[in-house]
Specification:
343 residues; alpha+beta; T-fold; 2 domains; nine-stranded mixed beta sheet; four-stranded antiparallel beta sheet; 19 strands; 27% helix
Length: 343
């Protein structure tokens, strides 16, 4: 029987958040909201106004109402209901992110697949209904998973899923898109520094007022959840982690996490505990963190080395750390029980 359901939302810790940020005579502005299944913390350090904060919250709400599979009237839900029936006209933002998801699916040879909706729904991880599905049920929904059967019509701005029963799920990329959309609003309003945390998807915008980079700590996993083993020093970058301890449940003594293999329909089997991706685009970092988790370490790092402006940090079950070449410049280890692989 299922004994435990784990829903671990925030597993990146922002440290030294306030130091050196506040301007003389100004007040920091912070707000917390909930969207896309996660807690979102917004911190403005550069004379942000309540009007701007309200605009940010409204922007997040608009994106959620368009892209959340769990909202019955969202554009994604409309696409899913019309699977195998007819194309659905969508907003420019929804069309963009689905197109982007397909690009990442192609890049990863299907390791990232936005049509995993039926598999995700069947497992129910993150809900009280989480369970290991029957093999026949799983085989049936797996036949509906294929990103190549998404038809996009750029001229009409429509999306069509070819097979009845197909379903999009943008959980592996939507939070990153939200972060990028918020950062764009900050740039338009000439805000110089801010910190966003979307359930562990962190964006350190600008630099601190004293000119120093932000320090973003990378959380230990499972029972070490209240501590961190390292941090990265970054400016104008997003830090996104995918890990087997983010969302999982236990059944008959076995743990099942939420990152699925599109071929087997089961959680990805790997020695990797987490992958952290650092990039200027949070959308890219979000999708790539899922892709890299599903790839062998050497293959994942090789992919990152081909991508401009992308770095990664792998952590394995035996506390070994594997870094892409550029990550070595801003990665700082703080826990001696972890070892950076030198091969």
């Amino acid at each position: 029987m299922r004994k435990n359901v784990g829903l671990m939302i925030v597993f990146l810790t922002v440290i030294i958040l306030m130091a050196g940020c506040q301007k003389k005579g100004s007040e920091d502005l912070s707000q917390t909201t909930f969207a896309l299944g996660t807690v979102i913390n917004i911190n403005l350090f550069d004379e942000g106004s309540q009007e701007l904060m309200t605009e940010i919250i409204e922007k997040i709400s608009i994106i959620e109402k368009a892209m959340s599979r769990k909202l019955k009237d969202s554009e994604i839900s409309q696409i899913n209901r019309q699977a195998g029936i007819s194309p659905v006209k969508v907003s420019e933002e929804t069309f963009f992110i689905i197109d982007k998801a397909i690009q990442f699916a192609k890049l990863s040879n299907g390791k990232f697949d936005p049509t995993l909706g039926p598999v995700i729904e069947l497992w129910g991880i993150g809900t009280e209904a989480a369970k290991v599905p029957d093999s026949k049920e799983l085989s049936k929904v797996l036949s509906k998973v294929d990103f190549r059967k998404i038809q996009l019509d750029k001229k009409e701005q429509t999306v069509f899923l070819e097979l009845e029963g197909m379903a999009l799920d943008l959980g592996g990329i939507a939070k990153g898109f939200v972060a990028d959309a918020v950062i764009e609003l900050l740039r338009e309003n000439k805000i110089n520094n801010a910190m966003l945390n979307l359930g562990g998807n962190v964006f350190a915008y600008g630099e601190k007022d004293n000119g120093e980079p932000w320090k973003i700590a990378i959380q230990n996993s499972f029972n070490q959840r209240n501590s961190y083993f390292a941090y990265v020093e970054i400016v104008d970058k997003s830090v996104v982690t995918s890990g087997s301890y983010e969302r999982y449940f236990e059944e008959n003594g076995l743990a099942y996490h939420h990152i699925f293999d599109a071929v087997t329909g089961f959680p990805v089997q790997t020695e990797v505990v987490s992958v952290t991706v650092i990039a200027a685009s949070s959308t890219d970092a979000d999708a790539l963190s899922t892709i890299l988790f599903a790839l062998p370490i050497a293959e994942g790092i090789a992919l990152v080395e081909k991508l401009e402006g992308i770095e990664c940090i792998y952590v394995t079950e035996d506390n070994k750390i594997y870094l892409s070449s550029g990550a070595k410049e801003f990665f700082v280890l703080t826990d001696s029980s972890y070892v950076v692989n030198s091969d």
